[in-house]
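Same chain as my last thread, 300 residues:
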Amino acid sequence: MALACESVATDKRARQRANRAKKLEQEYKIERTTRMRQLVVTGVLIAAGVAAVVILLSFTGGETDDTATETDDTETETGDTDDATSTSSVPATSTTVEGPVSAVSTPEPGEVLQGTPGCPEQDGSSERVTQFDEAPPMCIDANATYAAVIETTSGTINIELDAASAPETVNNFVFLARYHYYDGVPFHRIIPGFMIQGGDAVGNPLGTGNPGYQIAEEPPSVGYQVGSVAMAKTAAPSSTGSQFFIVTGSAGEALPTEYSLFGQVTSGMDVVEMIEAIPTTGSDAPTEEIYITSVTITES
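reply #2:
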């Protein structure tokens, strides 16, 4: 009987060892499967992270380059790039607008002609020119009255030009308009309560361009008011080119009389206000593209 009991106990221990071995093998398989799954998940996450970084860099790389370009241009540009905001007398809310704007794409300028053409045809039949070798000759009649009809993608703005007070500036504006310089050119900077600005046909980024020449300012004897039309310039003297702005509020009215005042909006301020209401980026560039489609000069 003792032998029988010993035999049963031996068989029982053998079965227990077999069961433990089987259990350990199963646990090992489960652990190995879990590790494999963790490795797969980790690999997927790493791959996704790398892909996300690559995508992020592909987007932010251009923005970084643009920012660097804007910084360089702000420091080195001496052409018709600055705005009606390059003065310390502008309210603090309007002093963060210096430098070029790149948020709005430059429109297709059409055929760009370079040279030194004479006075353009009065009927608007002259070919488009966007770069000139020198400032224009005197093309307007000192005894005539001039007005400008600015067609935009938001509507029509009518401006009475003041050739008596700013003959060189009005001559410059008429000269450029009759050579279709402004056709298809955007308003590239908007500051509510201050002004809307446009008139750069060639700058890349926008706000850095001029027509190839600069003229002296004609400081007004009176201050600016809502609807005043004046030329933008840099801090340097005699830096007026093609860019102009329309005053829309008290910040613009408070500008020092350093910018050539050459016109007044007579109708279409509702269009100016529509443009002013367009949302902008941190650099005051409109989030919607708004263009001048044509400028027609009338003479009487």
